[in-house]
Amino acid sequence: QLVESGGGLVQAGGSLRLSCAASGQLATTYNMAWARQTPGEQRDLVAIITSGGDTTYADSVKGRFTISRENAKNTVYLEMNNLKPEDTGVYFCNIPSRGTWGQGIQVTVSS
Fold first, then answer.
1. How confident is the model at residue 9 (pLDDT cuts 50, 70, 90)?
2. Alpha-carbon Rg for the chain in angstroms
3. CA-CA distance, 29 to 74, in Å (whole number)?
4. Of 66, 65, 33, nearest in space to 51 by CA
5. Could you give the CA distance from residue 21 to residue 28 in angstroms, rounded to a whole number?
6. 39: which residues sit within 8 A by CB, 6+ positions away?
7. CA 2 to CA 64: how far, in whole Å?
8. H or E stretch including 28?
9. 19-37 pLDDT tens trace
């Protein structure tokens, strides 16, 4: 299971940190990802971290978002800085290889 937390409402230019708590050793064993979905749009990956710690970002968030993992807590984070209104959406934690998704959490960035 994956449980997201940390979403909310923030003004443009602000920051939020999302957390994804995974059950068992999921977060330490598998590549983990964050995805974003806006109304009427598909769910797109924004950041991926491998089990070895390598990271990849969508061009739209590169330089502003940072994905990280804390193995001792079996948790993955998404630090989001310099947020823009177009970052608004529901953010999901994901294990790509297993097709496992969290329930999603709303992030709203006001202009």
1. very high
2. 13
3. 9
4. 33
5. 11
6. none
7. 24
8. helix 26-29
9. 999 987 776 788 999 999 9
Strands 55-57 and 100-101: unpaired
| Entry field: residues in the chain | 111
Residue type, 38: T
Cα torsion 35, 39, 41, 42 to 10°: value is: 40
Q: Say which residues have a Cβ less than 8 Å from residue 46's Cβ, sequence separation at least 6.
A: 34, 35, 36, 57, 58, 60, 61, 65, 78, 91
Question: In 59-80, which positions are buried (b, 16+ CB within 10 angstroms) versus exposed (e)?
Answer: eebeeebbbebeeeebbbbbeb
What is the chain's percent helix, strand, coil content, to nearest 5? 10, 50, 40
DSSP letter assigned to residue 27? H
Q: Per-residue pLDDT for 65 more than 80?
A: yes
Place of tokens 């109304």: 39
